[in-house]
Amino acid sequence: MRFTKMHGLGNDYVYVDCVTGLTPANPAELARQVSDRHFGIGADGLILIGKSEIADARMRMFNADGSESEMCGNGLRCVAKYVFDHGIATEPTLSIETGRGVLTVDVTARHGKAEKVRVNMGRPILQASDIPTTLPGDPPVDANLSGEFDGYAVTAVSMGNPHAVLYVPDVDAIRLDTVGPKLEVHAAFPRRVNVHFVQVISPNQVRMRTWERGSGITLACGTGACAVAVAGVLTGRTGRTLLAHLPGGDLELEWAGDDQPVFMTGPATEVFTGEWPDID
To answer: Which CATH code fits 128-260?
Structure first.
């Protein structure tokens, strides 16, 4: 099986071209194998690039633990780069079918290769039952968590996948490896949740660290950065344009209005290609 290793700000995935090649028979197990950083290729998960009847290409995403997720913003930018660079579709505006519907991406190219990608991430989902979460409010804004995390204020947003945003004075002081896995499976989130700790630098700038559902600590999370942009507006902490500093680099976010989509702009990088011995 031919694969391509790509990353968006260090949020790395193994990509398989199912447009020109075969689709893996067991992508969940394959995701677990290739993601292993000691015995596999090493990645935050697996993304399949396939044909679509309603878009230029289809994206399916599997976390490192084999669970399938609805969306990945950094992964989507890389899918757009692959589709553009490899001639699957060559227009500067592409449509990609994802678990949260068809999303539009604009490619900025240099020397015939996609260098920067701006994604229309769609409108945030703010109905608590659709996020989903049992926390009060539509959406829950600075809602209190129960149990071990009583006193933690959480703002919940979905960008097609669920996110919990927590504001803290210093993101580096958080033991993310300890609190992340516990918050991911908190009872308030029936489908688990992506967890983001955020430090506000200014009304238009934040630092954030992420524990991703099914993958653990990652260097960046595109949908998470979008959720942070939305949470900042909902809580009055930040404005509608935001520069998010993630461990892997920066993302530009814009949420022009409550009934508008969130736009995310950032890089996408191809690292290497190779052959994986088994397709099953």
So the answer is: 3.10.310.10
